[in-house]
């Protein structure tokens, strides 16, 4: 999709020789990885850390040199997508199920560039169901506890089976309709035993690039 591609490709312009780059996950990050692959063929020298097995496989296909997160002290820039971005740059992420690795990589990145199409910009988070990664043990009970926070929680299912994250966990998609206090909700959810992490990213983005259907971009 044009709007995703233009935003992602703009972000890649910030990558310089010698950088360690975090590779996000999803259909927008895909375009950033593709562009990075082309730049590497053209002589750019970087090392990359992937936030999912999908992005790792794509990077390998494109000849992008990869290192593990353990080998990287920190990332200079991470480029990743989002499911929603509010006016304070709080995010909902995890639509692709990679929220945990994405958050770990983002938290060790000097810069986190979020690339989105115009549909992802919202004045208030929560229309998009919030993904919460939970361990399998007691998942029905964890799901009930999440429901007590005022959402409709649904186990993510793919082809009639629970979706399994790269970390071997389940995802509960929590439909809050609207999230008034993202920071508080982030902490409350992560206090529930069985929860590994949730898809709220609170004020961690350092730049947001929005792509539009006509091919224009807005850098925030
Ligand atoms: C994956 C994510 C993605 O960044 C998010 O779902 C946006 O995906 P897309 O760029 O395909 O719209 O958080 O876990």
UniProtKB/TrEMBL annotation:
CDD domains: RPI_A. GO terms for cellular component: cytosol. The keyword Membrane does not apply. GO terms for biological process: D-ribose metabolic process; pentose-phosphate shunt, non-oxidative branch. GO terms for molecular function: ribose-5-phosphate isomerase activity. It catalyses: aldehydo-D-ribose 5-phosphate = D-ribulose 5-phosphate. It is an enzyme of class 5 (isomerase). Homodimer. HAMAP family: Rib_5P_isom_A. This is Ribose-5-phosphate isomerase A. It comes from Paenibacillus cremeus. The lineage of its organism: Bacteria, Bacillati, Bacillota, Bacilli, Bacillales.
């Amino acid at each position: 999709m044009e709007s995703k591609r233009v935003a992602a490709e703009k972000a890649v312009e910030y990558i310089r020789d010698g950088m360690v780059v975090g590779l996000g996950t999803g259909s927008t990050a895909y375009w950033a990885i593709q562009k990075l692959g082309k730049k590497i063929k053209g002589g750019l020298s970087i090392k990359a850390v992937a936030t999912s097995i999908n992005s790792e496989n794509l990077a390998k296909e494109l000849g992008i040199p990869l290192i593990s997160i353990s080998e990287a002290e920190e990332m200079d820039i991470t480029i990743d997508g989002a499911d929603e971005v509010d006016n304070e740059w709080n995010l909902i992420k995890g639509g692709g199920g990679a929220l945990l690795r994405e958050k770990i990589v983002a938290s060790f990145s000097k810069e986190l560039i979020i690339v989105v199409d115009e549909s992802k910009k919202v004045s208030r988070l929560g229309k998009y169901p919030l993904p919460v990664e939970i361990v399998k043990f007691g998942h029905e009970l964890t799901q009930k506890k999440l429901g007590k926070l005022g959402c409709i929680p649904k186990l993510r299912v793919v082809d009639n089976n629970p979706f399994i994250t790269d970390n071997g966990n389940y995802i509960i998609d929590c439909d809050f309709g609207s999230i008034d206090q993202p920071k508080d909700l982030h902490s409350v959810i992560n206090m529930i035993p069985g929860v590994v992490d949730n898809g709220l990213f609170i004020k961690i983005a350092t730049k947001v690039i929005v792509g539009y259907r006509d091919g224009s971009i807005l850098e925030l």
